[in-house]
Amino acid sequence: MSLVSLTAETEGERVALTATGAWTAERAAELERLVDEATRRHGNARSVDIDLAKLERLDTFGAWLIERLKRAFTVGGSTARVVGLSDPDRVLLDELRLVNQTPAPAAVAANRVLVALDSVGRAVADIGWSLMLLAQLLGALTAAMLRMIARPSRLRLTSIVHHLERVGWRAVPIILLSTFLIGAILAQQGIFRFRSIGMEIYVVDMVSVLVLREVGVLIVCVMVAGRSGSAYTAEIGAMKMREEIDALRTMGLDPIEVLVLPRIVALVIAVPLLTFLGSMAALYGAGLVCWLYGGMAPDIFLERLRAAIWLPTFEVGMIKAPFMALMIGLVACVEGFEVEGSTASLGLKTTASVVKSIFLVIALDGVFAVFFAGIGM
Amino acid sequence: MSSNTAVISVRDLVVGFGDVTVLDHATLDVFEGEILGFVGGSGAGKSVLLRTIIGLLPKRHGAIEVLGTDLAALGDRERRSIERRWGVLFQQGALFSSLTALQNVQFPMREYLDLSPRLIDEIALAKLEMVGLGADVRGKFPAELSGGMIKRVALARALALDPDIVFLDEPTSGLDPIGAAEFDQLIRTLQRTLGLSVFMVTHDLDSLHAVCDRIAVLSEGRVIATGSIETMLASEHPWLKSYFRGHRGRQIGRRLPH
Fold first, then answer.
1. Is there a contact between A175 and A277 (Cβ–Cβ < 8 Å)?
2. Quick one: DSSP state of residue B137?
3. CATH 3.40.50.720, domain A5-97, yes or no
4. Where are the domains of chain A?
């Protein structure tokens, strides 16, 4: 690459600057230094000639720097002229004379305390806002449900079955595998600790009550929130970005009825089934570990299981499942509708959907614990 | 204005997907400093040719030379240095939705050039002004811009590194006739100012009349004709006749000075 230069010849208060080389994007950093230096050094000159006759090439970057040089002199009260221009370069320079005339507004330095307070305030308002949206969607969903009951022909059975396959049927293998492992791990840890006090048999009590009441449903909900809740948010969010939801509305269709209801109904059906399967797999895993690791024969395990649990133990887990499914579905759909134009917002809302639904499932579990304790279950 | 040096030369290009051959020995030249309008029926493979030239699609046969170099023979580094010398305006703009208009224009500069933040700001603002956008759009995200503005910002981004060649994929689609005419003029002005060579895929007969120096027609996988709009209007080829002299074509043809 050839050299670029900006040489100066001073005659009293007149300065002649001569630019050579290719004034292009590749050399722009170097050119900026040359231009700044010339501005500094000859700032007090009365009249400046910028000679471009020896330029090899000029592009927008170079032309802007020439223009910047010229403006720097003009602002300082001197007269600056550009000479030796070829025709195409003149067109470019004329174009650049018009740009950047309004200086960019200076960034206002923000007060840190205010910024911190501001973000706290916004976060609190956001929590209130998202609770309100949840309530709103629950209301809209109930209304859609009632309309559905009044006219069952409007029920989108195909859509429900489709979602049921996605969130239910296809989730079975991974749910079975993870709950099986959880059951096995709980049993192994139990045996390991209980063995030292010679009470290995109570491992069955611990695992069965834990799995059926709490862990089964929680693990399933966490998996479903990560697997299906995120998908719901991303789908609805992408539909919103591509104006598909607006299209539905203009056709006189209710997005709640078409998109939300089938998805949430599918979840409410699927999660209890998955919870049941998951709990069984966990018990199976626990039984297997008790047998192979703890040396407890399967019939002893089953005997103990029968004594350790009664029907309400199982019911507690199963009653919670549909409510948690509803929570996951509502959060996922609310977040989906909150997606705005950018891909970043899609990612943000999908994350928020998973995090919020898992948190709310755990919070709901706490509420249920108090409730069941209250009614003695 | 245009010289006889080809900045893009496509020879016997074959591109296909599975069993379907989209381009069947297509041959085309784009000369330095010209605006080439590239037309053809919907689904004829115009965008496929464009995407093959810029390297987004693989070719099965044939040679593509851009700025005198065969892209297939280049290593990654040389390839990037050629890629720097073209800008692409995608049909939907393809602006990065998580960046503001100004950041979108700055993005290629930040990636390729080592410049001071001040210079990057100034040049990016200059480019936005050159495509006719005021200072008010600089902080806006693509989702907050209208279709016409998105195209303008995308054009500014395509021009960010002062390319030699600009590829435009249906630049005026989705714009109203006034907006489209303005955009045509903008392309013409920028082409003159910056000395660009422009490869423009279009369906817009107005654009073809208003700004294109030459027109190339793609049909059945081949470039069946190239030449000025007058040549196209005079042609007796049935497809050209119905395209340029059909009802919509005739109305525009009438406006041409004879």
1. yes
2. G
3. no
4. 5-97, 119-374
CB contacts, 8 Å: B162 with chain A: 24-25, 59-61
Read off the pTM: 0.71
Beta strands in B127-177 (DSSP E): 165-169
| Span B202-237, pLDDT tens digits | 888 877 888 888 888 888 888 888 888 888 888 788
Alpha helices in chain A (DSSP H): 28-41, 60-75, 87-97, 112-150, 157-167, 172-195, 202-210, 216-224, 230-241, 244-250, 255, 261-292, 298-308, 311-337, 343-374
- Count the neighbouring beta carbons within 10 Å of the beta carbon of residue A125: 10
Point out the residue among B125, B194, B195 whose CB comes nearest to the CB of A99: B125
In terms of Cβ atoms closer than 10 Å to its own Cβ (0-12, 13-18, 19+), residue A248 is: middle
Better-predicted residue by pLDDT, A137 or A107: A137
Give the separation between CA A286 and CA B200, rounded to whole angstroms.
67
- Can you give the length of chain A in residues? 377
Among A68, A92, A342, whose Cβ lies nearest the Cβ of B143?
Answer: A342
By CB neighbour count within 10 A (0-12 exposed, 13-18 middle, 19+ buried), where does A158 fall? exposed
Task: Report ipTM (2 d.p.).
Answer: 0.76
Match 């080809």 to its residue by tokens: B6
